[in-house]
């Protein structure tokens, strides 16, 4: 993290985050949650965002991308595209309605696929 | 269309707050990401309260749910930063740090989401009970 952050970089991070949030919202609308089923839209946004973050960090590591671009894409776009709060609350809501398997699958699949996608993208890109 | 604008505006705010947390609590790529853990746990708790309360009221407009839920809290919290930190901490072979961060995020997030939901549902139930109670009951109760 750089000590000083140029105002245009900060603004770009915010706009990129907002665009990521809009993309996630569009995905969740395109794949609406059916009661008791996995929230696929959010799962895809989370796994996809984790893969892009790994890719960008890998590229930045071999100086193919600058620090500012990394911050805008990773903290901004990927941070906005992915979400932790919806993932936690929807998993608990599944469990609270007795859908324990769906809840466990939502937690496990998001985490496992997200981690593998991020790691593979990072290792291929760096 | 209104919902998308609300999500965009909320996304600016949520991302800004998360960026602020990152700047206030900076961490190395291979260090413990306190800022990410903090925003994720706070965001899961607050979304739980809202999902148990405000979201269940028929009068809550859908653009507001979208703006605060998907927009502000959705972009305030992040899963990609958790994954990126785990990959970088793992590449650095700090397995215990990776395990501790995973446990703190997953267990902490689920516990706080459940606590928030419980709190939100309880508050909403009391609010509705108070609103449904006849006015005379309350004035009669006064000495």
TrEMBL record, chain A:
General function of this protein: Fluoride-specific ion channel. Important for reducing fluoride concentration in the cell, thus reducing its toxicity.
Places the protein is found: Cell membrane
Family: Belongs to the fluoride channel Fluc/FEX (TC 1.A.43) family.
Alphabetized Pfam families for the sequence: CRCB
Gene Ontology, cellular component aspect: plasma membrane
GO molecular function, one term: fluoride channel activity
Matching HAMAP family: FluC
InterPro entries: FluC (IPR003691)
Activity regulation: Na(+) is not transported, but it plays an essential structural role and its presence is essential for fluoride channel function.
Catalysis: reaction(s): fluoride(in) = fluoride(out)
The keyword Cell membrane is annotated on this UniProt entry: yes
Protein name in UniProt: Fluoride-specific ion channel FluC
Entry superkingdom: Bacteria
Automatic annotation (TrEMBL), chain B:
Catalytic activities: fluoride(in) = fluoride(out)
Mode of membrane association: Multi-pass membrane protein
Name of the protein: Fluoride-specific ion channel FluC
The UniProt record lists the keyword Transmembrane: yes
Control of this protein's activity: Na(+) is not transported, but it plays an essential structural role and its presence is essential for fluoride channel function.
Binding site for Na(+): 74, 77
One cellular component (GO) term of this entry: plasma membrane
Residues annotated as transmembrane: 36-56, 68-89, 95-117
Organism: Agromyces agglutinans
Similarity comment text for this entry: Belongs to the fluoride channel Fluc/FEX (TC 1.A.43) family.
GO biological process, alphabetically ordered: cellular detoxification of fluoride
Localisation: Cell membrane
Any one GO molecular-function label of the UniProt entry: metal ion binding
Pfam family, one: CRCB
Function of the protein: Fluoride-specific ion channel. Important for reducing fluoride concentration in the cell, thus reducing its toxicity.
UniProt keywords, alphabetically: Cell membrane, Ion channel, Ion transport, Membrane, Metal-binding, Sodium, Transmembrane, Transmembrane helix, Transport
């Amino acid at each position: 993290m750089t000590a000083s952050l140029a105002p245009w970089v900060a603004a770009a991070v915010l706009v990129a985050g907002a665009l990521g949030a809009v993309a996630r919202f569009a995905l969740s609308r395109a794949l609406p949650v059916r009661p008791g089923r996995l929230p696929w839209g959010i799962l895809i946004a989370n796994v996809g965002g984790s893969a892009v973050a790994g890719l960008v960090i890998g590229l930045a590591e071999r100086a193919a991308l600058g620090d500012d671009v990394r911050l805008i894409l990773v903290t901004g776009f990927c941070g906005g595209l992915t979400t932790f709060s919806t993932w936690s609350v929807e998993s608990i809501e599944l469990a609270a309605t007795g859908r324990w398997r769906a809840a466990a699958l939502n937690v496990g699949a998001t985490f496992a696929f997200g981690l593998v996608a991020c790691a593979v993208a990072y290792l291929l890109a760096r | 269309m209104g919902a998308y604008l609300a999500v965009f505006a909320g996304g600016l705010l949520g991302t800004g707050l998360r960026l602020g947390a990152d700047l206030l609590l900076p961490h190395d790529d291979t260090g413990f990401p306190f800022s990410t853990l903090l925003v994720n746990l706070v965001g899961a708790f607050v979304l739980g309260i809202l999902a148990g309360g405000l979201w269940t009221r028929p009068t809550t407009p859908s653009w507001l749910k979208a703006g605060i839920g998907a927009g502000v809290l959705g972009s305030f919290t992040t899963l990609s930063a958790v994954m990126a930190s785990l990959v970088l901490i793992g590449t650095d072979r700090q397995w215990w740090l990776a395990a501790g961060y995973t446990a703190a995020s997953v267990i902490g997030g689920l516990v706080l989401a459940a606590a928030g939901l419980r709190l939100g549902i309880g508050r909403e139930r009391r609010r509705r009970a108070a609103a449904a109670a006849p006015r005379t009951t309350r004035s009669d109760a006064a000495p």
